[in-house]
């Protein structure tokens, strides 16, 4: 399938404009988001102990009329995106997933489709589709280095089936000479599985997985109401934290060179709370930032010297890019500009492009620039290490260059007919029926689900 030159140019110009607006720390953005995550529903074929989703059967596209309007809006954003990520539940059991894949494939000819999956339902037909479209990324959740631990946590799954499905995709990629989809694996850290990290990494290396991500477990009423004993899995004691710390330090020193990226989320805050220097994790670069493609770099000596280990707190850190680059739509319609943050709007009440520059979104960006991450709605568990640390701004000469580039690209992107069409669609197309809005159960930080 060919793509109109103006569509490809629109994507490239939007990407450059987005980067410039981030560097200028703009609050109101003329660029569109570069990543959109769409949580289609919370239905799943497994019963994982630690799953954070409310099992109420919510489906984002359940109402046909509203679903058609939402899909039209999603389609309008696809030309701008580097990534559209579909989540569940489990995407392979959710109605509407296949139709969305077809619509993306018909709209853009770049590989932008990414999914999160437990990996249990990837048969030959789906493997062929993923490689031939192709998908951009397939993130598979594996929370253990051994069959016993994995199957205890991911109830209903079979470890060897998932491993065989990974091999199936990798083999098909080699056979067809494709680098896509890139496979990466997501690991939720718990007391029962953190000692298996070395075994897990050895297995991933054998499977030619180049990117892995680790995130500490979040518990609240959503999973505790189903699993009251889940508190036993929280890594909190001094002994457990120190043992985990030693394991992670050894991994960073020895294993990181075997992988393109090892990402961390929640560990910096955890280690800092126990008085353990955490800058070696380099979460500024090696955390869960959707769409980030660069390999992780080791923490520099300068960063190491600016941490609390020598009594001097680091006051300047890199600005978190998520609120400038992404939107996440939850299955109840809540929209966040970071997957680790509270909602700033709801898609049943206003269009995505309106939420993107809504007062709440602008306020969140402003708070983050000032280093007030927690009051902006960011997660205390994952983002508290950033609190009170602002980001440096560009020097005068660089600022002027950026501003000149900004003006040029704004005029250029305004020249595209489709660049203004999204904001002209009547807002009532996004107003859901009474039943849709009545079912909405907004929960604190509803986006707190791994995007990977």
Label the structural class: alpha/beta
Helix content: 25-40%
* Tally of DSSP β-strands: 12
Strand content: 5-15%
Distance between the termini: 28 Å
The largest β sheet comes out as: 10 strands, mixed
Shape: globular
- Sequence stretches where pLDDT stays below 50 over 5 or more residues: 298-315, 420-452
- Mean pLDDT across all amino acids: 85
Tell me the series of helices and strands, N- to C-terminal: HEEHEHEHEHEHEHEHHEHHHEEEHHHHHH
Main-sheet strand order equals 9-8-7-5-4-3-1-10-11-12
What is the count of helical runs?
Answer: 18
How large, in whole angstroms, is the Cα Rg? 21 Å
Helix-strand layout with pairing:
Blueprint: H1 5-24, E1 35-39, E2 47-48, H2 64-77, E3 83-87, H3 97-107, E4 113-117, H4 124-132, E5 137-141, H5 147-153, E6 154-155, H6 159-176, E7 182-189, H7 197-206, E8 211-216, H8 221-224, H9 238-254, E9 261-265, H10 267-273, H11 301-305, H12 322-325, E10 326-329, E11 334-336, E12 345-346, H13 352-356, H14 359-369, H15 380-383, H16 396-414, H17 417-421, H18 434-439
Description:
- By secondary structure, the protein is an alpha/beta fold.
- The chain has helices spanning 5-24, 64-77, 97-107, 124-132, 147-153, 159-176, 197-206, 221-224, 238-254, 267-273, 301-305, 322-325, 352-356, 359-369, 380-383, 396-414, 417-421, 434-439, and strands spanning 35-39, 47-48, 83-87, 113-117, 137-141, 154-155, 182-189, 211-216, 261-265, 326-329, 334-336, 345-346.
- The chain has a ten-stranded mixed β-sheet with strand order 9-8-7-5-4-3-1-10-11-12.
- β4 (113-117), α4 (124-132) and β5 (137-141) form a beta-alpha-beta unit.
- α1 packs antiparallel against α16 (396-414) and α4 (124-132) crosses α6 (159-176).
- The model is unreliable at 298-315 and 420-452 (pLDDT under 50).
């Amino acid at each position: 399938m060919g793509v109109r030159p103006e569509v490809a140019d629109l994507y490239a110009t939007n990407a450059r404009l987005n980067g410039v607006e981030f560097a200028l720390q703009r609050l109101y953005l003329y660029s569109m988001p570069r990543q959109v995550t769409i949580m289609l529903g919370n239905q799943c074929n497994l019963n994982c102990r630690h799953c954070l989703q409310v099992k109420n059967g919510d489906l984002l596209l359940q109402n046909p009329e509203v679903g058609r309007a939402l899909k039209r809006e999603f389609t309008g954003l696809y030309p701008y995106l580097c990534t559209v990520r579909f989540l569940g539940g489990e995407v392979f059991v959710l109605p509407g997933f296949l139709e969305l894949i077809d619509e993306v494939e018909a709209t853009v000819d770049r590989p932008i489709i990414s999914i999160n999956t437990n990996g249990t339902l990837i048969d030959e037909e789906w493997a062929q589709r993923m490689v031939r479209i192709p998908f951009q990324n397939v993130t598979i959740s594996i929370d253990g280095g051994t069959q016993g631990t994995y199957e205890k946590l991911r109830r209903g799954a079979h470890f060897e089936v998932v491993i065989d499905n990974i091999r199936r995709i990798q083999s098909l990629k080699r056979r067809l000479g494709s680098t896509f989809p890139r496979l990466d694996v997501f690991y939720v850290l718990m007391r029962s599985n953190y000692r298996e990290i070395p075994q897990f990494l050895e297995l991933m290396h054998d499977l030619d997985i180049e990117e892995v991500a680790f995130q500490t477990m979040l518990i609240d009423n959503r999973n505790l109401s189903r699993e009251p004993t889940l508190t036993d899995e929280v890594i909190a004691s001094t002994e457990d934290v120190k043992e985990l710390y030693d394991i992670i330090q050894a991994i960073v020193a020895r294993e990181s060179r075997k992988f393109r990226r090892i990402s961390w989320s929640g560990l910096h805050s955890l280690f800092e709370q126990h008085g353990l220097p955490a800058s070696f994790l380099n979460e500024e670069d090696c955390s869960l930032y959707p769409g980030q493609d660069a390999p992780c770099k080791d923490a520099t000596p300068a960063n190491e010297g600016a941490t609390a280990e020598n009594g001097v707190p680091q006051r300047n850190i890199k600005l978190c890019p998520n609120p400038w680059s992404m939107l996440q739509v939850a299955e109840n319609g809540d929209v966040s500009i970071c997957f680790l943050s509270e909602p700033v709007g709801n898609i049943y009440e206003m269009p995505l492009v309106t939420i993107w520059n809504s007062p709440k979104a602008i306020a969140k960006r402003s708070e983050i620039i000032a280093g007030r991450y927690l009051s902006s709605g960011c997660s205390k568990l994952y983002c508290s290490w950033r609190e009170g640390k602002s980001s440096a701004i560009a020097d005068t000469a660089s600022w002027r260059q950026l501003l000149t580039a900004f003006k040029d690209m704004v005029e250029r992107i305004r020249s595209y007919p489709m660049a203004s069409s999204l904001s002209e669609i009547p807002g009532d197309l996004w107003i859901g029926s009474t039943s849709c809005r009545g079912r909405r159960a907004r929960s604190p930080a509803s986006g707190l689900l791994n995007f990977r």
